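Incident log, support desk, overnight shift.

02:14 A customer reports that sequence design results differ from what the structure should imply. Their input is reproduced verbatim below. On-call engineer (initials T.W.) acknowledged and began investigating.
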């Protein structure tokens, strides 16, 4: 399913440009048109939400296809460990070697709980790790639920999560305002970030229904997209564009999650039809295949680039404007991050990936019905 690598590619490029051009940057020093452009780039932060939706879809699909296997838990956790842990713990080692993490944050990260650091008064030293902690908690709990709860009941559990997560974010924001703890990191907590994962899981359950086909997938994807637009338009007067209010904090992710669920559905349809090449451009597939390592390493390389340029002062010697310096950082450090991620994937991660396939076999199952419907659009 190369279209899913394309989605990964879109997500990681969004995050890369967000951290490279917008994140932790004082926009007041830029020209008005440059500030508008950088504000547009800030949309890349929602690449994390796209990863969540895609992960919910893929992991739930894997679990549903293997739920009757006697080695269900062993197989799932063994494969997840080989895919995730090597590059993750290499990242932690690099953070220690370069002095980019506190002892407290390192201990939290070793236990995949970096997103809960603020609960113990520990600063988030390396920002990107919070979302991996959310996913790891999802991997820890969700296999048990899929194994024991029938699919119809799972659907309603997931629907409740989609509704309750924004409510939780609303209540946490109100609490933060009342206790003067705005910005304390409540938004990173796992239970405030499960709605994207749940929405992806809902798609995985629905497309495996026996009565599900391409027409139904088209309707659902269109409905998700329309709902995303409706929520965004309805929430605009109430500050949905910002998380500075309780309403915005609660609902800003919602239209993005539904839009990404719709995007996933459209990609599944097009990727299994006569126009499948549209959803499989080689450069996006490439970025999708190195997306895990690129997500882990890129921020570290941006920090390293800042350190090097301050010591050598090369950018000012080139007489680059502030705008030129921003793009030089993005292009040079971004390219370095891509190279490092590629080398990591090929020479460090691949041996573990081959091991997981040799030990447990390739994932089985027929996959979503939408890809196997014998309709004219599928040929």
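02:41 Re-run completed on a clean worker. Output:
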């Amino acid at each position: 399913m190369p279209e899913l690598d394309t989605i990964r590619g879109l997500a990681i490029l969004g995050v890369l440009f967000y951290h490279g051009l917008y994140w932790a940057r004082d926009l007041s020093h830029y020209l008005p048109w440059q500030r508008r452009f950088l504000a547009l780039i800030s949309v890349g932060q929602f690449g994390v939400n796209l990863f969540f939706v895609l992960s919910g879809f893929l992991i739930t699909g894997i679990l549903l296809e293997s739920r009757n296997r006697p080695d269900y838990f062993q197989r799932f956790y063994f494969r997840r460990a080989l895919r995730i842990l090597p590059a993750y713990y290499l990242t932690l080692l690099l953070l220690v070697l370069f002095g980019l993490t506190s002892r407290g944050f390192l201990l939290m990260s070793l236990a995949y709980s970096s997103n809960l650091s603020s609960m113990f008064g520990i600063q988030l030293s390396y920002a990107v790790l919070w979302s991996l902690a959310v996913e790891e908690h999802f991997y820890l709990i969700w296999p048990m639920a899929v194994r024991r709860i029938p699919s119809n009941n799972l659907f309603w559990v997931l629907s409740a999560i989609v509704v309750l997560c924004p409510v939780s974010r609303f209540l946490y924001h109100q609490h933060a305002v009342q206790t003067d703890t705005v910005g304390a990191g409540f938004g990173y907590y796992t239970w405030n970030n499960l709605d994207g994962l749940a929405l992806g899981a809902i798609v995985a359950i629905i497309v495996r229904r026996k009565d599900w086909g391409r027409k139904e997938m088209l309707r659902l994807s269109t409905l998700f997209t329309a709902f995303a637009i409706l929520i965004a338009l309805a929430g605009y007067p109430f500050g949905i564009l910002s998380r500075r209010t309780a309403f915005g904090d609660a609902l800003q992710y919602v239209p993005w999650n539904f839009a990404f669920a719709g995007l996933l559905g459209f990609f599944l349809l097009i990727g299994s039809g006569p126009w499948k090449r549209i959803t499989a451009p080689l450069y996006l597939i490439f970025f999708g295949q190195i997306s895990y390592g690129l997500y882990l390493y890129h921020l570290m390389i941006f920090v390293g680039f800042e350190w090097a340029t301050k010591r050598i002062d090369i950018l000012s010697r080139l007489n680059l404007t502030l705008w030129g310096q921003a793009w030089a950082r993005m292009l040079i450090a971004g390219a370095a991050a891509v190279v490092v991620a590629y080398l990591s994937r090929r020479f460090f991660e691949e041996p573990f990936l081959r091991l997981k396939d040799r030990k447990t076999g390739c994932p089985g199952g027929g996959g979503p019905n939408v890809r196997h419907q014998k309709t004219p659009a599928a040929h």
